[in-house]
Design brief:
The chain is mainly alpha-helical. It has helices at about 10-35, 40-75, 80-100, 105-135, 140-160. The chain is elongated, with a radius of gyration of 17 Å.
Amino acid sequence: MPTSRRAEPDACSLLDTDHRKVKKMFKEYEELVHSRAASAEQKKRDLANEICMELTVHAQIEEEIFYPALREAIKETDLLDEAEVEHASAKDLIAQIQEATDVDDKFDAKVIVLGEYIDHHVKEERNEIFVKARAARDLDLVAMREQLTARKEELMEELGATA
């Protein structure tokens, strides 16, 4: 059976794969919050750092490539404005998490709230932004997926080199 172009993985499916990955990481973090193991504190720090890196790269590729292309392709851009404001709030929390010296209850609260922000953001992207993106005629989401993948790899390499 031939596959249509629509069935190919596109920019939205790439971004959604990122969403699922960080959701799983947030669940792992919440399990660690309830752990009494001596190693839990370091595991929480490491996992929080990984979450922050994933989200930073994800937000950057959306802001550099996905959102600008979508702004050109659709008339209603209020959802994109909201998404960018949500990114700014998430970046603020990410900075607080990365700057924290102690892995305490406040640290846990910041990571958990970040997870809640991201959960809300993901629902809006899946249910509204991705729907509009896939309906836009002048948007090649399959080609954009390749662009996003290449930029994501560059950014991960940059962050990996400095980590």
